[in-house]
Design goal:
Layout: E1 5-11, H1 16-22, H2 32-36, E2 40-45, E3 50-55, E4 58-66, E5 69-74, H3 89-96
Antiparallel strand pairs: 1-2, 3-4, 4-5
Length: 103
């Protein structure tokens, strides 16, 4: 189901990417626990689809086709911190899944 082959994982520490992606000045709140234990993100090879957001060479959000539909794969858990309590989380979800507004 993933649009690529998992070749390991690495810590995700560049949280400002999300603010830039959304075009907001509202920062993700990164507490000391997240600084010490950042979330792990899978490292993919042979990525199939369009990378919408990446941390260097590591894709974070990929848009790809599955059957007749469009799928957006997000390689972080948006129900975990720091995304869960981010004031702009709903806007991020609307940007990643724009059709949910009309259906």
């Amino acid at each position: 189901m993933l649009p690529g082959d998992i070749r390991g994982s690495k810590p995700h520490t560049n949280f400002t990417l999300w603010e830039t992606f959304l075009g907001t000045d509202e920062p993700l709140v990164i507490n000391e626990q997240l600084r010490r234990n950042p979330p792990l993100i899978p490292v993919l090879e042979n990525v199939k689809g369009k990378v919408l957001l990446a941390d260097g060479d590591t894709p974070l959000v990929i848009e790809h086709q599955l059957g007749l539909g469009r799928v957006v794969t997000c390689l972080v858990d948006l129900n975990a911190e720091p995304w869960r309590s981010w004031k702009k989380r709903d806007e991020l979800l609307q940007r990643l899944i724009p059709w949910h507004i009309t259906t």
